[in-house]
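Support request, please re-run this one:
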Amino acid sequence: MFLIFGGLFLLLYWRFVSIQATGVVKGHELEAEALARYETGYVLSADRGKILDRNGNVIAEDTLSYRLVAVINESATENKNNPRHVVDKAETAKLLAQFIPMDEEKILARLTPKSGANTYQVEFGLAGRGISHEVKKKIEELKLPGIILYSDKKRYYPNGAFASHLIGFALRETDDNGNSSVVGKMGLESIYNEQLTGKDGKLSYQRDARNYLLPNSDKIIQDAQDGNDIYLTIDKTIQNFLDEAMSRVNDQYKPQSMVAVVANPKTGEILAMSQRPTFNPDTREGLDGNWLNDVIENTIEPGSTFKAFTVAAAIDSGNWYPNAEYQSGQYKVYKDTIRDHNRYGWGKISYLVGFQRSSNTAMTNLLDIMGWETYESYIKEFGFGQKTGIDLPNEASGIINSRYPLEKYTTTFGQGSTVTPIQLIQGITAIANNGEMMQPYVIDKIVNPNTGEIVVDSEPTKKGQPISADTAKKARELLASTVYGEAGNAKRFQIEGYKVAGKTGTAQMPKASGVGYDWGKNEFLYSFLGMAPMEDPELVMFISVAKPKLADTEIGSDPVSQVFNSVILNSLKYMNINPADVAEVQTSKIENYIGQQTDSVMTKLQAEGLQPVLIGQGGEISEQFPAADTSLTKGSIVFLKTNGDITVPSFESWSLRNLLVYKSLSKLPIEIVGEGYVESQSISQGTVIVDDAPIVVKLKTPEEKHSTPPAEDMEMVDEEIEEELPQD
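Re-run finished. Output below.
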């Protein structure tokens, strides 16, 4: 017996030693399983990265919302006097239908599981997500048993239908394992989904059986990593100008579609981009068919806007003779006949007048002078027939048709061959930017918000120099003559105070069957490709309106000019670009004032006709804006930052840009309401800021001064009802 019990004791002792040493029993790791039993925690949710405009204004971000859940299993209720599940399903469905976008019958169906199913709780799909705090409170006030609202995150688009086909949208999705995340489904939200998506963190700790924190246990925190923030080249103010004008024209003329893009020709930065029909990314209302960004993914026949590049090629190759004459009206290409929009022509006219009248036959004669090989080389240098390389996917390249002689001739006036609006914008930068063609781009930078690291920092890219600086200047003057010349057919695009250069276009649109073209005043694609100010363009813009419903006295340029004129006028004023009548004023180059005393610097600036604005009590200057060596015109503001309390200046007539600079330097809690120029401020001039009370500054956009020109004689109307396709 002694030997038996002694053996059992040794065996048991050996087992204790073995478990102590290895921590494993029958393949189970005891320490890991103990931690799993007593360790608990919860997920620290990461934010999806923000999408912001060039000035840091939010375009898309995550915001707090709530998710609706209904517990329908009776096992959830332990005390019948305090039910924890949905008791009256019909009444619950009726009440919930008042607060979520789902029919009462469908809600009731969700609350009533199939026979035999042991469902514990149900959700309501998209209708039960993204619930606001206000709606949450109203639902909670009903005190419906079994109805629970969990905190959630929703992708929020504060500007509504704002460049929607560019920005796209993201939705929360749940995978097969029950994990939920916001996923980009369209536009930049989809293209940059990986960069925007954050990585959730975790908080874990040890607890006892009653869920109390164990003494001396450590909390382990794995911080969430928010997704990268994407800063666009888009300017919110200019985009608002564009969206407002397009919506107004869309409501008035009911066109089939509209496309517009505004860019900085010196850098290639896209400042605004929009199309109609559009949609609200918060609700997807309006997103019925077209998911494409038409600016880059769809091609069009450009019509007479393409004549800008034909003439630029002729000038640069030494084949432009503006005063030479040709016979207008029609031009024979073997058995085919190319006609002007005025099919009888204007007799013998100069090439200059022919261009101003948008004559097709002027372009065909120019091709004979240049030769196809020369012309084709310029088309390629301007980037047509190939992708621009913009930082967006699925870009179309267009086709330059030249297989048959007729196609070569029709290409000169923008028919038969196809381009994208972004190609037209890239090409026109060469004319606006003294021959240097700039690649368009929409991503300014991508920033890691967790570290501040700039992951991507975009820079302007020169794509080539298809024409010389001298040619570009002559081409701008020629394009301006279509707006201001006696025979010009683009007079509707004149803007008060600024000189515009550009070219109208009218193209036939293919029939829905794909065979032949639609015909008629209300069946064309009307467009304008222009720039301003003509002498040194700061903006280039393309706008097209397809099949607008025109009144008997209206022409295609009416809806197009309403968008172009409004956007360019307001944008130039917002950018503080001086009108043409004061363009040739003396400028002053400011120095580096940091470290100097404000008294002497302010006196000097005032003597030079500049407006110094002091931020602080005075004394030694620590910051300034603009930077040293910047040339400013008289009346321009120079911000000087010093230490000490800040006295509020008069913001009257300040632009939004100047107000943003002041807010950034002063760090004051300024709340900006509206766009354009300052109309009023909540704290009067001369007030010394001593607390964090917000300063509300209200702005208004400039009034649109452009008025519709009076009806002109039939000859002028005929000139503006532009070209048709070649006739057999």
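The CA atoms of residues 160 and 584 lie 41 Å apart. The first strand starts at residue 24 and ends at 25.
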